Amino acid sequence: MLKFKFLLAALFILLAIAAFWTMANTGEKAPFTSFEGRPASKVPAKVIESANKAVSGGELEEVVKEDKEKGEHEEKDNDTEKDDDDEGKDDDSDKDEKAPLSEVPAKVLESVNKAVPGGEIKEVEKEVEDGAVIYEIKKVVDGVEYEIEVTEEGVVKKIEKEGNVRIWNFNADVLEKTAVGFSIAETGGEGKLATWQVIEDKSAPSPSNVFALTKNENYGSTFNLVIADDTSYKNLDISVKVKAVSGKEDQGGGPIWRAKDADNYYIARWNPLEDNFRVYFVKDGRRKQLSSANVEVPSDQWHTIRIVMMGQKIDAYLNGEKLITVEDSTFAAAGMVGLWTKADAATSFDDLSVIPIR
Questions:
Q1: In the beta sheet, which residues pair with residue 342?
Q2: Is the pLDDT score of 357 beyond 70?
Q3: Helix residue spans in 38-189 (DSSP H)
Q4: Do 353 and 240 meet the contact criterion of CB atoms below 8 Å apart?
Q5: Which residue, among 295, 317, 221, has the nearest Cα to 263 in the 3D structure?
Q6: Helices and strands in the chain: count of H runs, count of E runs
Q7: Cβ-Cβ contacts under 8 Å for 192 (sequence gap 6 or more)
């Protein structure tokens, strides 16, 4: 038993010598999280007794008290402060900032002037959205203010006219591509989606680009659609310019609104083969006529379809003349807007605009 105690005491002595040697050679007290110096008079007697028992004789030079719990809290607090600082940096990166016209990339200005010709740029704001640089440019043309959103690469994301009017004139879109922000779809088809492209047309109401259905293998009761993805309107004033290009079975087309998806929406269309102008709804993929008016207008010219819907009331205009007033409650909620043709109809569209009605 005495031998065991002697070995245990020797082990304590060796450990103590190793600790003091380490401190003497490295200049470090110990790998503690935090420290608090204390006078020997305040050290508990049992601690002094254990120290003298482990290492007999000599003089006690320094006492250090370790508070691990406090150190852990401090470390966590430091991490929290660092996270808060990082969050603050992220918030700052999303803030808008004014940008002088001289620092706006040439391709951005070119796209803006192409999308909204003439006038004067009054203000430019630069912001970062999801890591991408966006320019918000305010431009005044003939006393009317436009707000144009353009990416750093010169892609026009949105055009809004004074009074929250949103306009798509397709002049800044890439030729032979689908207009930015639109998705191609169909109702009642066999999966042969029509080809919708931005093309050049010198006869365009706002030269020189239009959005057109250029290739189509559909027939019968297939409805060809393009839907503006980031739109949601309930009461609205929507208009679009339409030109029939071709179609043996069907021609013409028009706008859709309050669209829930490709199988549920309102539609107004002009058909030069039938010499009529009609309003329908499509619910669960099935179309039902609400009203019709006879019209005779040249098929090779541009015509304007305009719809004003408030609540359940629909007023439908062709070339500025109100031809239809009808009420319907099939779709009461806000929905997307888009463009529509039927069967083999190839049609061009320009100057799609939407005004929300409060």
A1: 223
A2: yes
A3: 45-54, 68-93, 106-115
A4: yes
A5: 221
A6: 4, 22
A7: 186, 217, 218
pLDDT exceeds 50 at position 60: yes
> Does residue 70 carry a pLDDT above 60?
no
Helix, strand, coil % in the chain, rounded to nearest 5: 20, 45, 35
Structural tokens at position 169 = 């004139």
Any idea what DSSP says for residue 249?
Answer: S
The structure tokens listed for 144 are 């009317």
Report which of 43, 44, 139, 136 is spatially closest to residue 96, judged by C-alpha positions: 136
Backbone angles phi, psi at 252, to 5 degrees: 80, -155
Question: What is the three-class DSSP state of 118?
Answer: coil
The one-letter code for the residue type at 189 is: G
297 Cβ neighbours under 8 A, 6+ residues apart: 270, 272, 303, 318, 319
Residue among 58, 358, 70, 59 nearest 236 (CA): 358
Looking at the DSSP assignment, which residues form a beta bridge with residue 225?
185, 340
User: What distance in Å separates the CA atoms of residue 314 and residue 292, rounded to the nearest whole number?
Assistant: 13
User: Which region, left, alpha or beta, applies to residue 247 given φ > 0 means left and ψ of -120 to 50 means alpha?
Assistant: left
Indicate the pLDDT class of residue 293, thresholds 50, 70 and 90.
Answer: very high
pLDDT tens, position by position, 82-114: 455 554 444 444 567 899 999 999 999 999 998
Distances (CA, A) of 223 to 140, 239, 286, 344, 348: 38, 20, 10, 9, 15
The SS3 of residue 1 is coil
DSSP 257-315: EEEEETTEEEEEEEETTTTEEEEEEEETTEEEEEEEEE----TTS-EEEEEEEETTEEE
Neighbouring residues of 162: CB distance < 8 A, sequence distance ≥ 6? 144, 145, 146
Rg (CA), the chain: 37
Tally the residues of the chain: 358
Interhelix angle 45-54/2-26, nearest 10 degrees: 100
Rounded distance between C-alpha atoms, residue 46 and residue 41, angstroms: 12
Q: Cα dihedral angle (16, 20, 23, 25), rounded to 10 degrees?
A: -130
pLDDT score at 79: 52
